[in-house]
Amino acid sequence: MGKSFGGVIVNWLFSRSEQKVALDKEVSMLRMTKEKSLNEILSLKEKIKVLQIEEVRIKNEHNKLSILVDEYKKRFGDLKLSAHSELGVVAIEDDDANVFHHLMNLNGGNNFNKEQTSAIRFDMRKHLRIIAGAGSGKTQTICAKVAYLVLKEKVNERSIVMCTFTAKAKQEMQERVTEFLGGNSQIKVLTFHGWFQKEYKSLIKEYPNLEKYGIAGEIPKNLEENNHDKILRNLIKQFNLYNFDKHEDKSINERLSYWKNMGYSDDDIVNFIAKHFDDKGILENQQLSIVFLNMLKELERIKRKERVINFDDMLVNLKCVLENDTKSLKIIQKKYKYIFIDEFQDINPLQKQIIELICPPDSPNNTTKLIIVGDDDQSIYNFRGAEPRYIKEFDRQYVQTSIELMTNYRSIAPVVHIGNRLITNNQHDRIKKSMVAHKVNQGDCYAKVFQDEQQEANWIAKQVLKLSTDEKQFQDQVGKPNFTKTIVLYPNKNQLKSMIIALQENRIPFVTKADDDLLGIFGINFFKQSFNLLMDIINEETVELKKVFYKRLIQNICSYYYIPFATSAEIISDENNYSPEKLTDFICNKKKVSNKERSDIKSIFQGINEFTKTEELDIKAFVTFLVKTPKVKKELIGEEKDWLIKEIRNVTTLKEIIINYKAADKLKKEMTNKLREYDNNNYNAVYLLTIHLSKGLGYKNVFVKGIYKNSLPDHRAVEKNSIEIQPLIEQASPPTTIEEQRRLMYVALTRAKENLYVTYPRTVNGKPTIVSQFIKEFNIEVIE
Predict the structure, then answer these.
(1) Is 769 buried (19+), middle (13-18) or exposed (0-12) by CB count in 10 A?
(2) d(CA 497, CA 2)
(3) pLDDT tens for residues 606-626?
(4) Which of 171, 189, 355, 601 is the most buried (most CB within 10 A)?
(5) DSSP-derived secondary structure letter, 190
(6) How far does CA 565 lie from the centroid of its chain?
(7) For residue 430, which of 729, 126, 131, 735 has the smallest C-alpha distance?
(8) CA distances (Å), 314 to each of 311, 421, 718, in order?
(9) How far is CA 747 from CA 409, 465, 690, in A?
């Protein structure tokens, strides 16, 4: 009885234990799993039955086909499958095989790949967008496409136009098309400016009354003779617009050009000025927008009368005619069957508006087809209105087919890989894609860090010498290094001086663009203005002209304290106010300054006053004063200020700095001839170039110098999504974005064929740099 009762108690306790609960739960789960498995078995049995039925059907079909094949063989012989049956690859028996054979022989014997072949063969019942990555052979492809249309489709050559952006690209395309067409071509290959000007002149020649639209005229072959800028300068003076011309270091000429290329009318421009500038106090007792409107009207009147145009007018003229004359619009819409546009990612709104007039999006009456080619990842000209959105959204406007050329034939695999890694960080601002490397050969691909800029430049120079010594000789220069396979890219002019010094010390010849970058500190905007005025005062022979430049120098200094030109013009109109005391009082009464600043201002005017008599000036004190003025202090970036101060410390007199300027100016003038010889392959030199100007180039050895924060990315760069862009566009001050700077870095990397060296210094002007985020993003090996 006791044992039985004890067993019951134990069983009852066990039934309430955690172990019992867990076991019950497990048993329940196993039962559910069993039931599920049984259902799956039943389902699989049903599928097996279906497959068995399908197997029987396929066997029956196979038997029928076997009978048909046997019958075919009895009548026609064995079947032959093409060795190139894959879509996009040319088989020897294809009807266009001989056309491709002809093009291949003229393409250095190189076959076109599957994607290139598809683009060349595309039947053009729709528009065609070719997304062509870096080094993917886009020029060969589109030129072969043109030749295919002529040779295979028998398209009239005069019904085709090819458009690109630069004279160099135009020449390359013209030569390639002519070669593909057997040495004789009537295909129009033009730049946008050349094409649109040609169409405008053709229309007004046929219909002279159209001259009322746009401004008829010619761009002088010698650009120095172009008086468009002279007319504008005179009008700025006439309408007293000096303050606006100096506002935020952006000239009226620059603003007008930007607004025009953004496709804005004069009315739009005046509205923008009213919206963003009328309340800035730029003109005293006058509304800037009204004065500016009157200036624009007078500018147009004079240009019409004197038949003066600039490059922007070459585009605007055609737009005016096509928007206002229906007959002209119909003529040009029927003129071309195919329009090829190269580097479509670089198109600006004005160019795009004209293209849309000539070839309207999805118009049922439109017989013209567009073939656009480009790469949104290489869109780097936002400052002139271009942005990747236009090529990205092409498929929303036009019924089109897109073909991607993603095989990189230019660069070794490591370069392609780091480029892909970098540009994927723009994932919200690009067409998703990646390049594939074709080359299997090896080369250098790394970043190297140095203590300072000069050490960086010295290493580059020595590496250039080493690489060039190993190259095949240049022309008949036996035993001399061949420097023509090497390019040094840099983000901005701050990087250039150390490189020039290093190359000169190593006696390495170089070429670069003959622009203000070669002037070193004399190319820094505010210093350039002040220094040029000092030079003008020295160089002018008459007292009256010396006084003119002296007045401008005083006004410049006043502007650095944000005193409008109109206001400073009042005091300089009377020579009795030229004393250092009165000029100092004038600035200090307009702007609140400390006693120390007052003393500095007076000292500088005393120095300038003495300079007008002796042509001697304490240049160190003068520059030190200028960089501390409110406007310069705000707008001059730290590195330029440090660079300027460092250079000035190395001179003791104004005469010394004038000698330095003359040497820099001489180098700039000589560079024009050297660069011309280099472009004609007659000068053995290293090429120094800003990254912005390097697009489209490819070199065996590429050095990308000075890659640190505030250099690349630029100090002004912001995330695109963090700002409101339209107000900045309306002020003709487009933003610099991180996304575009990343594309700029991508362009630099993908110029390299075999050897890529990215370099950066730990310090600049004695101050530590911040490592560029791009170094981490493209995950390159860094060597110390």
Answers:
(1) buried
(2) 106
(3) 999 899 889 899 999 999 999
(4) 189
(5) E
(6) 35
(7) 131
(8) 5, 41, 34
(9) 15, 25, 11
CB 421 within 8 A of CB 777: yes
Q: Measured between alpha carbons, how far is 380 from 706 in angstroms, rounded to an integer?
A: 18
| SS3 annotation, 300-364 | HHHHHHHCECCHHHHHHHHHHHHHHCHHHHHHHHCCCCEEEECCHHHCCHHHHHHHHHHCCCCCC
- The H-or-E segment that residue 23 falls in is helix 18-76
Give the helix, strand, coil percentages of the chain, each rounded to 5: 60, 10, 30
SS3 of 487, please?
strand
pTM recorded for the entire structure: 0.84
Q: Pick from 313, 311, 314, 330: which is nearest to 322 by CA?
A: 330
Query: Taking a C-beta distance cutoff of 8 angstroms, is the pair 605, 584 a contact?
Result: yes
Task: Look up tokens 């609960």; give the residue.
Answer: 21
Task: Kindly give the interhelix angle for 167-180 and 138-151, rounded to the nearest 10 degrees.
Answer: 40
Q: Which of 542, 543, 570 is nearest to 242 (CA)?
A: 570
Contacts with 641 (C-beta within 8 Å, 6 or more apart), sequence order: 627
Whether the upstream peptide bond of residue 713 has omega within 30° of 0, thus cis, is yes
In tens, the pLDDT along 380-437 reads 999 999 989 999 999 999 999 999 999 999 999 999 999 999 999 999 889 999 999 9
SS (H, E, C) 65-133: HHHHHHHHHHHHCCCCCCCCCCCCCCCCCCCCHHHHHHHHHCCCCCCCCHHHHHHHHCCCCCEEEEEEC
Strand, helix or coil at 617?
A: coil
Tell me the average pLDDT of the chain. 90
Under a CB-based contact definition with an 8 Å cutoff, are residues 532 and 513 in contact? Answer: no
Q: Are strands 782-783 and 686-690 parallel, antiparallel or unpaired?
A: unpaired
| CA-closest candidate to residue 380, choices 710, 748, 751 | 748
What are the DSSP calls for 373-407, one per residue?
EE-GGG---GGGT--THHHHTHHHHS-EEEEEE-E
R_g over Cα of the chain:
35
In tens, the pLDDT along 548-578 reads 899 889 988 998 898 887 788 878 888 888 8
**Joined tokens for residue 678:** 């280099």
Question: How confident is the model at residue 559, as a pLDDT?
Answer: 87
Written as six digits, the tokens of 455 are 């050490």
